[in-house]
Specification:
The structure holds 2 protein chains of 2 kinds. By secondary structure, chain A is of the alpha+beta class. Chain A has 5 helices and 9 strands; from the N terminus they run E-E-E-H-E-H-E-H-E-E-H-E-E-H. Chain A has a single domain, classed as Ribosomal Protein S5, domain 2 (2-Layer Sandwich), CATH 3.30.230.70. Chain A has a 5-stranded mixed sheet with strand order 1-2-3-5-4, with helices on one face. Chain A has a 4-stranded antiparallel sheet with strand order 7-6-8-9. Chain B is α+β, with helices and mostly antiparallel strands. Chain B is built from 6 helices and 12 strands. In chain B, the strands form 3 sheets. In chain B, strands 1, 2, 3, 4, 5 and 6 form a 6-stranded mixed sheet that branches. Chain B has a 4-stranded antiparallel sheet with strand order 10-9-11-12, sandwiched between helices. Classes of the chains: A alpha+beta, B alpha+beta. The interface between A and B is medium-sized, with 28 and 29 residues. Chain B: It comes from Clunio marinus.
């Protein structure tokens, strides 16, 4: 079954090469009522992330008496999945795990010292998904929204998936079809390598199993994917900042 | 904070009054001028019908998911349309973070009324087998940004999504009770009318403002929402507040009619 994942010409089911990312489209500052927002399109997944804060902690938050309050809320739109209407999941374990993962990923990279006793709210709305690793899109969208809001961060956090065919060829950025075809899927969120500063990984999730000897291959593939995504995110941020700067200058 | 923002925060009523007395609004519009409208259809591939509408910065996305169900025994050839809007902290700090708020429940009912008062959709079109199988259209709206006039944007998103709806062909065998869904053949539903809503507010009992922003809504005396279709009045909603003179009402209805023409021309452009 696995050998269909990559044809003899080196093309995958959707026509990509082994180390090609799916189409990514980014828009920043899409929402007006919050401090930072982003629209992130990756293949068939569309996500909107919005950041509200830093602000005075709400009553509910201040009961917990922490140093920095970071609330994450993820919502799947009811029309987001193919097939059945997505029922509203209340207290769902899956959502809880998703939110906790995002919380931990970002708490480690936001410069918390600058936001003591403040609250930051992250809202993720998943508008469309084909079922594959929404956490990657959520992490990338959240990074963009945080930067759009001007929240101080150590580095970009980029998330990517990678898989392995039965012949041991690593595939970058798996689509849902490839995911359910049976190969293992490695999802990582990493702070990519820039200059001398080495890359570090913040979140790893693996489904299925593969031989330990293939670990390096698939890990490297995913990390290189994160680097590529970082470049794409960075370019979007810079061109957006450029446009904003130009419009501010011409206004004055 | 700039001087202007400070003044606006300290005395929002006087701030708006200073503009309105000169027949202008803080964003430079005339009293009865609307913000730019952007309509986008078929935005979500996983939904059977979808639309994103922007009015200034107010943004609502509508996605329709169709499911099969048994009809009500009292109306065996009628399908169901269930509009449901989500107003959460994502779109404005005035709403609750999670859960269903009173505002969204009121808006759900208002959207339903607007849809059925105008005779927009004939529910018998959603019937597959009388008394046995009908379509249920779950129209889920998510408000992404609330800068006033959410009802206008939501109802426009709803009818645009309904117009872009593509339902697969369903065969129901009465004898074997087997349901066969054919995804390759897709057909839309026929909309008999396209209701367009316009929201106005009154300010200090004498000024009428069309398409209020969130700041203007918070200091308004009263709201009036008027829905028209085919140049005819189909729904009026005024949730209490100060009274309006009948001449004011008449002028509002005329404005609503003009707005409807403009919106219909936009829709015709998209759906050619």
């Amino acid at each position: 079954m696995n050998h269909e994942l990559i044809s003899p010409q080196g093309l995958r089911i959707d026509g990509r090469r082994q180390n090609e990312l799916r189409q990514i489209s980014i828009k920043l500052g899409v929402l007006d009522r919050c401090d930072g927002s982003s629209f992130y399109l990756h293949g068939n997944t569309k996500v909107i992330a919005s950041i509200s804060g830093p602000k005075h902690p709400s009553k509910a938050s201040s009961k917990k008496d922490e140093n920095f309050y970071f609330n994450v809320r993820v919502k799947f739109a009811t029309f987001s999945k193919n097939g059945e209407r997505q029922k509203v999941m209340k207290n769902s374990k899956l959502l809880g795990e998703f939110e906790l993962n995002l919380k931990n990923i970002f708490k480690s990279v936001i410069l918390v010292e600058k936001y003591e006793k403040s609250q930051l709210d992250l809202n993720i709305e998943i508008l469309q998904t084909d079922g594959g690793s929404e956490i990657c899109a959520a992490v990338n969208a959240a990074t963009l929204a945080l930067i759009d809001a001007g929240i101080c961060m150590r580095e970009y956090i980029c998330a990517c998936t990678a898989s392995l065919t039965s012949d041991g060829i690593p595939l970058l950025d798996v689509s849902h079809l490839e995911e359910i075809s049976g190969g293992p899927t490695l999802t990582i969120a990493a702070l990519p390598r820039i200059g001398d500063h080495d890359q570090s990984v913040s979140f790893v999730e693996l489904s299925q199993k593969f031989y330990l000897k293939d670990l390096n291959k698939i890990f490297d593939c995913a990390l290189r994917g994160c680097e590529k995504i970082r470049a794409i995110l960075d370019e979007a941020i810079r061109s957006n900042a450029n446009e904003t700067a130009i419009s501010e200058l011409t206004d004055n | 904070m700039s001087q202007e923002e400070l003044y606006k925060t300290i005395n929002p009523v006087k701030y708006l009054r200073n503009f309105v007395e000169k027949s202008l609004r803080p964003d430079g519009r005339d009293l009865l001028e609307f913000r730019p409208t952007i309509i986008n259809k078929d935005s979500i591939a996983t939904a059977e019908g979808s639309a994103i509408i922007k009015l200034g910065t107010t943004t609502v996305i509508c996605g329709i998911k169709a499911e099969l169900a048994e009809p009500d025994s009292s109306e065996p050839s009628n399908g169901f349309i269930v509009p449901n809007i989500e107003l959460t902290k994502l779109c404005s700090p005035k709403y609750r973070a999670i859960g269903v708020s009173l505002d969204s429940q009121i808006m759900n009912q208002t959207l339903y009324n607007i849809l059925f008062n105008s005779g927009c959709v004939d529910l018998t079109e959603l019937c597959i087998a009388k008394g046995k199988l009908v379509w249920v259209l779950y129209c889920d709206l998510v408000c992404l940004d609330d800068d006033g006039s959410v009802l206008d944007v939501a109802s426009l998103a709803l009818i645009t999504a309904l117009k872009s709806l593509k339902l697969p062909k369903v065969n129901y065998d009465l004898d074997t009770k087997v349901i066969k869904v054919d995804d390759t053949i897709k057909k839309g539903i026929n909309l008999k009318a396209l209701p367009v809503t316009t929201t106005f507010i009154t300010f200090e009992q004498k000024y009428l403002l069309a398409d209020p922003t969130s700041d203007e809504e918070s200091i308004a005396d009263t709201f009036v929402t008027i829905a028209t279709c085919d140049g005819q009045l189909s729904y009026i909603y005024q949730p209490g507040g100060n009274s309006l003179a009948s001449e004011q009402f008449e002028s509002l209805i005329k404005q609503a009619g003009k707005r409807e023409k403009y919106i219909i021309s936009l829709l015709e452009n998209i759906f050619e």
